[in-house]
Amino acid sequence: MKTNTYILTIIVALFTSVLSAQVTFETKVSKKKLGVNERLRVDFEMDRDGDNFTAPKFTGFRVAAGPIQSMNHVWNNGQRSFSKTYTYFLQPTAEGKFTIKQAQIEIDGQIYKTLPVTVEVTKAVDKPKDGNNADYVVSEGIHLVTEISNGNPYLNEPVTISYKLYVKPGINVNDYREISKPTFTNFWSQNIETKLTAQNGTYNGEPYPYVTLRRFVLYPQKTGKQVIEPFSIDLQVSVPTQRRDIFGRRYETVHKTLSSASRTIEVKALPEAGKPEDFSGAVGDFDFEVTASKTSLNATESLQATVEVSGKGNLKLFQLPKLKLPSSLEVYDPEFTERVSTRITGMQGKISDSYTIVPQFKGKYPIPSISFSYFDPKEKKYKTLTSNEIVIDVIEGPVNTTTVDNSDNQSTTQKQIVTSSGSQFKFLKTTANLEAIEAKDFFKSNVFYALLLGPFLFIPIILFARRKKRAYDNDIEGNKTRTANRLAKRYLSEAKKKIDDKEAFYEVLERALHNYLRAKLRIETSEFSKEKIQSLLVERNAHQQTVDEFIELLKSCEFARYTPASDVAIHKDYEKAVQTISQIDKQIRR
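RESULT FIELD:
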């Protein structure tokens, strides 16, 4: 018995270790059906780094390009994910059904193999889709999708709209900008701040990483079919191809404009059956109460009565019920308070009306109970909450005479002349303690001495300022540096304005560098090579290191036309240009 238990423990431990070391190695194809004149992209993707990769024989295909190896590291909420891909571009050689057989890889001393994938090759299509064409790869591998949390909400029920960008592995999005911002007619909308964090998802059944670009919470204000307009963006994308550019890279950078599809939301009207008479449009799940800051006080003192609704729902889109108070209580207009936050699930928090009440007469005054009604979309029914009655006990004060109207069991106040007890206005002073203002002699006053001695106090300050000014003017090297810095910034002012637009920035930067040389060296730089410019600067006593930095800037402007550049690189190039022009201006002979 003990032996069987020991063996079972070993088996469980081995099974657990196998699960913890599970490796994903799979074959992905760009399409399962294609024409004989089209190309097929095949990715062999793994989630751990491996060695000794062996591709299968591609029966029925000719290898047009590959293998292209790429690796991708993604950090999401502190978790690191890794993927390594071997990519092939295949050209069919015949029609029929063909199987992409197993590829294998060695990971941590173990051999892993992919599952076979069957692909159907049909007759030639009219417009072949080149799997190596950058525009085609982008159109097939990047998708802007509008996701709606609820396509059939009630009026004033929250709906979440998410605009997600799905990007196929292997395609790099360098930058994007919004072309048209979403508009939501017949909706109350609130933008929800999002972080551009990559997440794993699926698109048409295939695994796709995605980024949520924008999120909104909507509250429909009109029933019937409501259209969500498209959201458009412009992308700068790098895609792998088998073609090499002049720098030997296999990536091609293209611009692509994407628009999400229009979506329709069918908004349901709130049911008429069972709708309370006091219903004011509240939809959600709420709590309701009426409270008083005190229930016992003297006449002419004040108290606060608060009507509060809290919970989740359209808190900003309905009116609070009003208090009904006896006429013998002086009541001021309520002060509205809103503590509501809008999250991805909708509004939540509380709203309240605070009434300031000042009783004028002695006695007991009830604040009658009031009701608040709302519609609960989860339970699909109306609910009514009722507050408790509050009795205000005024202990001291003038007496008021009242009569009871038996027809409606409510107390009504008879207007009468109220004799003042003299205590209502105790906070006002009715006696004055005034003193005559004596005329004071200006001579020998504080102001007189301040005006007399003031100029003598400013003399040391003026002398100190003049000494600093003289030292500043005599600082020849410092003045040259400041003049050179101002000159550099003047030439580069237009480039700084374009610093958020990579292509425009480098175009303007290159023009500024040439303009500077044209002004300083009295040459047309377009007629000279970089070597000639370099020799001319050295002849004018510019330091070799400074000249090399200037030439590197010119090269960066040329390379930027073909390669993507980050915001950090652009800012570094700008700062480097300011420093280099300033150094040259100080070093060359006039």
